[in-house]
Every structure is written in C-alpha cells, then in structure tokens.
C-alpha cells in the first residue's frame, strides 16, 4: 500500500488543522493505521493510532483531548483532526500502516507516507 499525507501548514497557537492520509491499493481496511511526528533534532514519535474498523483508538498523552484520529475505509482515507495546537506540536507528521494486529510499536509499521509539515507559531 502507498500512503500520501497532506493537510499540513502554518497555524497560530490555539488553531486547528486536519491532516489526511490517502492510501492506494487494496485491503486498506485490514491495516492498523497511525500518525507519527518528528520535530527537528528529535526522534520520530507516536501520536495516535486506530484499529481496522475505526472503533478503537489510542493517543499519546500530550495530544489526548486535542487530537482525533479517524478513518473512512470506503474511501481509503485516514484523518487527524488537530485542535488547540501548541508550538510543541510543530513537526513533520507521517501516516503509517501496519499489517499486525493490536497496537504495534514504531518498528512494526510496514508502510509510511512522505510526511506533511505542521508549524504552530506562538
């Protein structure tokens, strides 16, 4: 499967953005999907993940209550609604897909998108 992330941009503190991840290929609904991010000089870190059917999600603590991950299997799309953005959310955001079940660690993801830049100004 090929992944294409989009929707990043420049936003002020407290603003919102919606990231999208378009997946090509079949069997999108069989992949666990996730968002990761990487800030300059830092390692890539987990943000949020969603199961095959979209009825179970898991978030990194710092984004709980502000970010919402969702997916539309009929459209082969995944989303990340980001509200109340903070400067520390500034990073390149990547979408990823895993064939494994459960909540894989970062090394367990099989496919990665190219990333989209999110910049939050203070």
Describe this structure in words.
This protein has strands at 2-6, 9-12, 17-24, 32-38, 45-50, 57-59, 67-72, 77-82, 91-98, 111-112, 116-121. The mean pLDDT is 95. With 122 residues, the protein is an all-beta fold. The protein contains no helices and eleven strands.
Kindly summarize this structure in a few lines.
This protein has 122 residues and is mostly beta strands. The chain has no helices and eleven strands. It has strands spanning 2-6, 9-12, 17-24, 32-38, 45-50, 57-59, 67-72, 77-82, 91-98, 111-112, 116-121.
Helix content: under 10%
- In terms of DSSP E residues, the strand content is over 45%
Give start-end ranges of low-pLDDT stretches. Answer: none
Q: Based on helices, strands and strand pairing, what is the structural class?
A: mainly beta
DSSP helical segment count: 0
Order of helices and strands: EEEEEEEEEEE
Distance between the termini: 37 Å
Sheet of most strands:
7 strands, mixed
The radius of gyration is: 13 Å
The number of distinct β-strands equals 11
Could you say which overall geometry the principal axes of the C-alpha atoms support?
Answer: globular
Instruction: Give the mean pLDDT.
Output: 95
Present the secondary structure layout.
Blueprint: E1 2-6, E2 9-12, E3 17-24, E4 32-38, E5 45-50, E6 57-59, E7 67-72, E8 77-82, E9 91-98, E10 111-112, E11 116-121
Parallel strand pairs: 2-11
Antiparallel strand pairs: 1-3, 3-8, 4-5, 4-9, 5-6, 7-8, 9-10, 9-11
